[in-house]
Each structure stands twice: as structure tokens, then as C-alpha cells.
Amino acid sequence: MMRRLVGDRLILGVLALTVLAGCTGKRVMTAVEGQTIPSSPASRASVPGEARQPSGEAPRAAAPSAEEGRVVQEPVVAATPSQPTRPGDSVSTPSALQEPRPQAVLADIYFDYDQYILRGDAQSVLEANAAYLKARPNQEVVIEGHCDERGTSAYNLVLGERRAAAAKRYLQDLGVMPSRITIASYGKERPFCTEHSEACWQSNRRAHFKLQ
Question: What is the pTM of this model?
């Protein structure tokens, strides 16, 4: 009985010593060696070239990417204002060097088939021709009477003369001196159009004005 009690005490003593030795030899680590546990969440690492924006300001536009940086915009060239021309300076423009001389042409009038009566559109043209001639008192004009290809040459010569005479009388009534107007008839001998159609014949039934 005594031996058993002594053995139990020895076993308990060994266990106690083992527990104490383990507690004193164990090292409690609150952090990984060589590292520091931060007291607050780590802030985002700053990116090189990124500027911090003050609070309350709108964020700046993002920098262009590498692809956008390759695009080169051509500069806009402003137009250079022309210098004012001083009196006596020559202007070296084509229009100034070779300006065509204006040549006024009086409009023709047209007649219906086998007629020498002035139509409404012919009267309007004659009024414009009369205004031109009255503005130039020394300008003379020849009125040529023409016909289409139908009919005999003799008949068309008479018809062309009557058409030219009708135009002359109308100009006289508008104030143009008769001494400045000469009439001539070519009948169908000088056609303006050579096709055999009504449109072509209409263009040939005319009184043509030629300045002298």
C-alpha cells in the first residue's frame, strides 16, 4: 500500500515538472518576427506620377494613354490678312492683268410660224434692248430677219424683212432714233440651227441684233 502511494506521487511530480518546463520554455508570439503590425489599415500605395487632389476639388482629367499619345494633331494655320493696297501700287492678279473687255450683246426675239407679229416675250426683250441703246446715243445696230427652212427662199426673204421691220418700229416707239437702226433679211439662208425639228425651227424664226 505504501509503495503504491509513493509511486502515484512520483508520477504526479514528474507530470507537474513537465508542465512547468513546457510553460517556461514556450515563447508566445503576438506578431511575426521582423514585421510590424500596423495600428490602422494600410493606405493605398501611391502610384508614381499621380498627384493627390485636394479635398473639395474636381478630379483632373486622366493623362492620355500611350496609344493616344501617338496621335499628332496638325496645328491650325490662321489665314494671313491681306495688306491694304495703297494708291499707286500695282495689283498682280490675273483679272487685273488680263481683264476681258466687256461686250454687250442685245438679245434676239422670236416669232411664231409664218408670223411677224411681236409676241409678249419679244416686246419685253425689245424694251431691254431699247434701254441699252438709249443709254448709248452713238451706238448703231443692225436688225437681221431670219426664218426656218420651210417655204421658198423668196417668200422667206420677204418674211424676214417684215420681222426686222417690226422690231425696228417697236424700238422707234420706245425712243430709239430710226437713223441708228438698219434692217436686213437673210430668210432661211443663215439658219442658227440645222436640225429638222420644231425646236430647231423655232430658234431660226428670229430677229438678231448686231451692234455696229
Answer: 0.52
Phi-psi region of 56 (alpha: psi -120 to 50; beta: other; left: phi over 0): left
Distance, in Å, from the CA atom of 190 to the CA atom of 184, rounded to the nearest integer, reads: 12
How far is it, in rounded angstroms, from Cα 61 to Cα 27? 54
- How many domains would you assign to the chain? 1
Question: Given the C-alpha cell 506578431, which residue does it identify?
Answer: 31
Backbone angles phi, psi at 86, to 5 degrees: -90, 155
* CATH number of the domain within which 205 lies: 3.30.1330.60
State how far the Cα of 31 lies from the Cα of 28, in Å rounded to an integer. 9
In-domain check, residue 24: no
Residue pLDDT, tens place only, 33-58: 444 444 444 444 444 444 454 455 55
Q: How many residues belong to the chain?
A: 212
